[in-house]
Amino acid sequence: MRLWRLRSETAAAVARLVADQARLASAQAQVGEVERLIEILRTREREGEGSRFDRLRAEQELRDTRQLVTSAAVSVAEARAILAGMLPRDIALTRIASGPDPLQVASAAPEALITKASSTRAELRALQQLAERATFEGDAARRARLPSPNVFGGMKRADDASGRETGAVFGLSVAIPLFDTGGREAARWTAERARVEAERASIEYRIRSEQYRKIVGPTS
Questions:
Q1: Residues 75, 19: contact at Cβ < 8 Å?
Q2: What pLDDT score does 81 carry?
Q3: What pLDDT does residue 219 have?
Q4: How far, CA to CA in Å, does 136 sit from each of 59, 140, 146?
Q5: Nearest CA among 106, 76, 89 for reference residue 14
Q6: So what's the pLDDT on residue 212?
Q7: CA atoms within 13 A on the CB side of 156
Q8: Is 155 helix (H, G, I), strand (E, B) or coil?
Q9: What is the sign, positive or negative, of the torsion defined by CA atoms of 6, 9, 15, 19?
């Protein structure tokens, strides 16, 4: 128990030092940006294009940012002292390099396996195609409430007293829906897409559970 507690306190101290170092670096970068902004404002003020009020506001922001740098530096010193007290005396601690987040590293492998498993399941591909079909059918049903013109043309032959005559025929027909606006059919395909999406989500959840059980292993 004492060893576990010591490891936990050390990990917390390391995390605090890394976070304080990141906050200090961010505050120092912000100081540099504000200083560059003040130089630009001074140049514009000398040329008559800027106002003195903007420069004074920027200088006040610079003072506030430098106070943040001082506060972050104090926090870094305190965190370094706490961590140094856990180490042997002959080890000098200056800075800890921040590495990748272990939670992200641990979750990268399961997500890759889950993506691979999902892409190789035939039922998921079939459900994806059914969902796309439901979308297209619903769009087509909604367009059915609009008038649909139809242009046709061709050749026509007719017999009269002088013989057989051949001529061209062109026409235009327009279907105007009065009662069926396609709302019922569109609602049916929308419900079908929702059913397919729910079934697909259920299969993906089952795949995710299987992959996590394989990675984590059985629990007692």
A1: no
A2: 83
A3: 43
A4: 60, 6, 16
A5: 76
A6: 63
A7: 7
A8: strand
A9: negative
Q: What is the pLDDT of residues 56-94, one digit of tens each?
A: 888 888 888 888 889 888 888 888 888 878 777 777 777
Mean pLDDT computed over every residue of the chain? 77
Tokens 């970068």 belong to residue? 29
Bridge partners for 156 per DSSP: 167
pLDDT tens-place string over residues 108-140? 455 666 666 666 777 778 888 888 888 888 887
53 forms beta bridges with none
State the DSSP string of 13-65.
HHHHHHHHHHHHHHHHHHHHHHHHHHHHHHHHHHTTSS-HHHHHHHHHHHHHH
Half-sphere exposure of 10 (CA within 13 A, CB side): 10
Domains of the chain, by residue range, sit at: 2-99, 106-216
Quickly tell me which residue has 């025929």 as its tokens: 169
Distance, in Å, from the CA atom of 10 to the CA atom of 14, rounded to the nearest integer, reads 6
Q: At what angle do helices 122-143 and 183-216 cross, to 10 degrees?
A: 160
> Are the beta carbons of 95 and 153 closer than 8 angstroms?
no
